[in-house]
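My convention is simple: the sequence line spells out the residues, with the fold written below as integer tokens. I include a record here:
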Amino acid sequence: MSPSASCAIATTKTMDEPAATHDSSEQPSPGAEEQLSGERALLRRYGKDRSPVVREELVDRFMPLARRLASRYAGGAEPYDDLVQVASGGLVKAIDRFDLERGVEFSTYATPTIVGELKRYFRDKGWAIRVPRRLQELSLRLNKVVATLTQQLGRSPTVGEIARVAAESTAMVAPRCCMTC
């Protein structure tokens, strides 16, 4: 066998070997540890002085997280760029509200905030006409109140009863309950 043939066989063998798997029980690599401490330092700095420059750096650092979460909802009727924009808005909210003293990693805190913004976006866009969020939330709340009162009373509740339980005026309740009352 020629030396070049044995070299080709050796190369083939190393390429066929299984790739190393990541063991989650291992400690993070020194590079990952440095990155985490750098992110914590940035978050600490932003928590103290609320600098727009630091905020922008945090957004740049965590934008891949927002993009990845937005990509979960891609492929539907909404353009991916719109989803990324909504996710980045959620990221900014998470950065502004994050409290480093709670001892939680930022990505753990930011993920539900970003996903919540994306879900809220779909909920708001799901209506045939643009209805203000407050009215959408009122409608959902009134549906729950009507269901609860119907079960408690054994009959359809009146507009006044719904308004009292929902802590809303009858003027706000009546147009939204005409179908259910």
In short: Residues 38-125 form a domain with the Four Helix Bundle (Hemerythrin (Met), subunit A) fold (CATH 1.20.120.1810). The radius of gyration is 27 Å.
